[in-house]
Amino acid sequence: MFFRKKTVRVEEPSPAAAADEVSPLAKLRSRIEEAQLPHHVTEAALRELEKMEKTDPAVAEYSVGHNYIDFILSLPWNVSSQCKLELARAQSILDTRHYGLNQVKQRILEFLAAKTLCGKAKQNILIVDDEEIARANMEHVLKKDGYNCRGAENGVEAMRILAEDDIDLIITDLKMDQMDGLELLNQVNRVSPEIPVMMITGFATVTSAVEALRKGAAHYLGKPVNLDELRRTVKEVLEKKLFVEMGRGPTLCFTGPPGTGKTSVGRAIAEALQRQFVRISLAGLRDEAELRGHRRTYVGALPGRIISELKKVGVNNPVFMLDEIDKIGQDFRGDPASVLLEVLDPEQNVRFTDHYLDIPFDLSRVMFIATANDLSRLPAPLLDRMERIEFAGYTDREKQQIAQQFIVPRQLKAAGLPRTSIQFTPEAISRVISDYTRESGLRNLEREVADICRKIALLCLKADSHEQEVAIDGEMIARLLGPRKYFRDAAEAGAQVGITTGLVWAETGGEIISVETAMMPGGGKLILTGSIGEVLQESAQAVLSFIRSRTREFNIRDDFFQDTDIHIHFPSGAIPKDGPSAGITIFAALLSLLTGRPARRDVALTGEMTLSGRILPVSGIREKVLAAKRAGVRMVLLPRTNREEVEALAPDVTEGVEITLIGTAAEAVDLVLESKSYILPL
């Protein structure tokens, strides 16, 4: 009784005034009818409108219903951006926007090439009609337009052909023996729902047309068939189907260190495909409702971010970037990763249901791209739905080219400096890269270049010489940026007993670590420090057991561990460290300590070691080699099982570094440890 409209007697307006005034609900109904929404969406909007007609406008539910219908009408149910797949144009965009990243560009061009060939292939049409003359006429006309046509007398024969051949469109009569058109439509929707079906019949009625369209028919034509209208309708239906298929693509996951161009490559893909670009950040997302929306029964309910972004962009086939997907959380408000399982699965996102919308929305035309720094944080089912593309770190040569072509001009413009007057010499950029940055990406390099440009702008204002030509060399870099921030530790440090250089992979790319060991009188205790995880602790235990089992081979006293404590330390204790790649590094440090043979600091190691001394393969080979180069390492020892990855490295990655492959721990001893001993073996 609280929600019913109160019957208030009012004087009836004059016919002229009634004609001029149209009620808001009538306007809303006309908008629904003119919107050409999908059938199930129209029914949902009309149901909500009927509730509003029975509700007093002063009640809160009235405005909730009005906002809901407005939201339905504003969504791009049938609006798509027209994409033109031009391979040469796409390659030009990728090359002009980014330097390097050849593997990533190759994968994107392969995707575009497959879609281009798909669009040029001939399409197959199946014509089902019990009248041979009508079937022959339609086949004759459609073959002239370049389509491959096959004929069938009834639905049973059509289903047999459908099982044997790939069919893109079915044109069927309504009345046939054995299986009529509507039954054939039901069978096709059950077996191959992606194939559109056109109904053609001489018994055309409003009831039969509505029933056919409600069951999923793509179009409805009456007999006798107008052949020009048939050709036009077939072209429209097949173009729409081809456009939908070409719009669908794999879910790409760009993974790599920060600053390697993952987001900007996503923008370049959208530009190459001539699509709209949408980006949302998932970092710190813990509430499932932010993606799926709130139910309309809640106060202040809002739709999810995915549906809201599609409303803003106005098309149903944008390039949608899910940034920082590895940083989503989970708490009592739900698990956002479970929503992404539905969003990124092509079998489920055809009918994605937002809680606020409460109507299935087709997300299959959206090209989703995810970015992540560390894939180990993602659930395995979610990772299985994506195709991973790794963004490796840049070499010094690539950084220099990117700085000259992109970073320096952009920062000069941001500082208001003329590009023709300020020149950065190659020596200056190399100095910035080697002495003031140590990263896999480019963000710190851009910050340092921006700092230089701001300082030059200040000097120009003080000297009142805006147009004076300035050449920035290595000496000027030191004066502008101050003392260098990074040193080549491995190259400048001499050989030391018990200290080795290791290579690890982190979210920021490849990193150099030092493993330091010390021994003291005690009772056989192994001390591990340096904020290390369980995997590193197990590696240290396995290495110690291996050395104790081979004491005679390494010329060490058998009972050395009974009256000695060994301390293994990983410096930079504030940084968490873990992973299966430091076993051989720990082995070399411990053996150097126990034998007194100094370990070379310009030799870096990576690889996990078993109790039998075998070296297991590791990941991140390219990033680790680049980290070794940045630290001045001259030799890198890698597992022999990573030979194929090493051979695939580009020449500028391995330039200046000697890479040696080892299969057992014994092979690394003479390569890392010097022959002379400073102390007597235990």
Please state the average pLDDT score.
82
The number of helical runs is 27
Q: State the distance separating the first and last CA atoms.
A: 94 Å
Give the C-alpha Rg.
Answer: 34 Å
* DSSP helix fraction: 40-55%
What does the secondary structure layout of this molecule look like, with pairings?
Elements (H helix, E strand, L loop, with lengths): L14 H6 L3 H11 L4 H15 L6 H15 L12 H11 L4 H19 L3 E5 L3 H13 L3 E5 L2 H10 L4 E5 L7 H11 L5 E5 L4 H9 L4 E4 L4 H21 L4 E4 L6 H12 L3 E5 L7 H4 L12 H9 L5 E5 L12 H8 L8 E2 L6 E2 L5 E6 L7 H5 L2 E4 L5 H19 L7 E3 L1 H10 L7 H21 L6 E3 L1 H8 L7 H4 L6 E8 L2 E13 L4 E4 L4 H16 L14 E6 L13 H13 L7 E3 L2 E2 L5 E2 L4 H10 L4 E5 L3 H5 L3 H4 L3 E5 L3 H7 L10
Parallel strand pairs: 1-2, 1-3, 3-4, 4-5, 6-11, 6-12, 7-8, 8-11, 13-14, 15-19, 17-18, 19-22, 22-23
Antiparallel strand pairs: 9-10, 15-16, 16-18, 20-21
Helix pairs in contact: 2-3, 3-4, 5-6, 5-12, 8-9, 17-18, 17-19, 18-20, 22-23
How would you describe what is shown here?
The chain is α/β, with parallel strands linked by helices. It has 27 helices and 23 strands. The strands form six sheets. A seven-stranded mixed sheet has the order 17-18-16-15-19-22-23. It has a five-stranded parallel sheet with strand order 2-1-3-4-5, with helices on both faces. It has a five-stranded parallel sheet with strand order 7-8-11-6-12, with helices on both faces. A hairpin with a 6-residue loop joins strand 9 (352-353) and strand 10 (360-361). Helix 8 (155-164) packs parallel to helix 9 (181-191) and helix 18 (426-435) packs across helix 20. The protein is elongated, with a radius of gyration of 34 Å. Residues 15-20 have low confidence and may be disordered.
